[in-house]
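A favour, since you know our structure tokens better than I do. What I am after is a single protein written out in full by you. Could you add the entry underneath, on a fresh line?


***
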Amino acid sequence: MLFPYAFVNHGVEKLHVYIEHLVLEVWCKASVNFNNTLLHADFKPIVESNKKFLLDPVREIYDLFKPLTITQKSEVADGFKRNNNIEEICSGGN
């Protein structure tokens, strides 16, 4: 049976905002030493309260991004944006 999709507002949407910020604004702009103030304000307490599973890996990935060139960071950012453009992916776009 077909039925119209009813959008359900869910907290997981916030997670995408946090991850998008993390990838595009923190990792892809990594240049100085990592500082928790770089994190999305609402994501920061979550990361800080989960040191082993979030804060340490976020910092480690940041350190991996620091030596990358601007071009390499741009390629990661572009790839992230393309992979999150669901409408284009579903329509057969690149």
Summary: The chain is about 55% helix and 0% strand. The CA atoms of residues 2 and 8 lie 18 Å apart. Helices lie at 12-26, 44-48, 51-65, 70-83, 86-90.
